[in-house]
Specification:
Elements: H1 2-10, H2 13-50, E1 55-58, H3 66-73, H4 98-106, E2 111-126, E3 129-138, H5 140-146, E4 168-172, H6 173-179, E5 186-190, E6 196-205, H7 210-213, E7 216-220, H8 221-227, E8 236-241, H9 247-255, E9 261-264, H10 265-268, H11 270-308, H12 310-318, H13 323-356, H14 379-396, H15 398-406, H16 409-416
Parallel strand pairs: 3-7, 4-6
Antiparallel strand pairs: 1-8, 1-9, 2-3, 2-5, 2-8, 4-7, 5-6
Helix pairs in contact: 1-13, 2-11, 2-13, 2-14, 11-13, 11-14, 11-15, 12-16, 13-14, 13-15
Amino acid sequence: MLFLSLKHLFSRKKQTILILMGIVLGTGAYVVISGMMLGFQNYILERLINNQAHIRISAREEYVTRESMQKIFYPNNETIIWKVSPSGRRDSTELQNPKYWFNKLDQTPEVFAYSPELVSQVIFRRNKTEISGRITGSKPGLEQRVSNLSDYLSKDLKFTDLGDSGNRIIIGAGLMKTLGARNGEVITIATGKGKSTPFKIIGSFSLGIQNIDDTTAFAALLDVQKLLSMPNRITNIGVKLIDPTIATQITENWKQFTTDKVESWEETSAAILSVFKTQDIVRNFMTISILVVASFGIYNILSILVNQKRKEIAILRAIGFDAKQIIELFMYQGIILGIAGGLIGILLGFIACLYIQTIKVAPGRLGGANNTMIISFATMIYVKALALAFFSSLISSFLPSYAAGKLSPIEIIRSES
């Protein structure tokens, strides 16, 4: 049966090659587009997951409403007519009960590490240059377990070099450039209260995210607490989980027992993740569109073959082939086209991805280690590509095969006469 299927396909070589090219194009396009998009997505996800805490616990956000004000000033449910409705927020600048969270995190087996932080807006000054930015105070030993910021520090610098105190800071490369500062130089940092404190720059970091590199600095928690005159205070806790995929589940559980603000990395990065979903939809739609066109080609060529091979079908039926075997004969042809086109398309797509991976991009423009395009070579890309080619060919070859199986020798002879 396989021999007859191949003979039928080779009897119309031009049509077979054209259909095969359609499947190859669809499969290869899927591999290339998926490799580029998933490479970009993996790069961004790695930054989102590893460069920040999986869960962040911060001071609560309380919105002022008519109901909340009535409970405070009129707890007996008196009828109140407001001339001007109350509005705004009553935010806390710090966590009110951090010890509760420390105990809870210590007792949660899914937690890998956590780091208390004190974050504030400040003004960086060097000579006459002043830049508004943000300083984050943390315990260096704990912070480097929560994020992989150490991977983006300047040469021979460790995050633990900040120490527990000593007014040392690590600043973003963009911020250092704007200030015109150098390693080992002392700059002053001022708070909103006008107080200025000298800090020594021991190095810089470059995440490749401009709004962070141009405005952010890191220091020891004790030093920032002294700077802000907030001893023993923290504004948030960064939590790293053993499995980041359960961050949302744990966050929803914790929200039931606290009024503090608890956010997972998926919530804070919802806009970026929605872009990924859109990319996936576009990628799959483009590939499916190409394969649908190829499927119609398979359907047409098999339909033509059924009409052209009516005499051969009558002979096969006359010598003992049943309807099931006739269906198998033409189904094999569609499956052969699908598998052959899928394999060739995968190979060409892989070669194209190897080439694209060598294309240079501008430094800091989402490039790899050598400032080249980032491509994903995940196994599932190739498995899905072959599956799409196979099933599209299988489905498109069913109707012509079924029509061929219904033909009987007598009907064919009568129609020919």
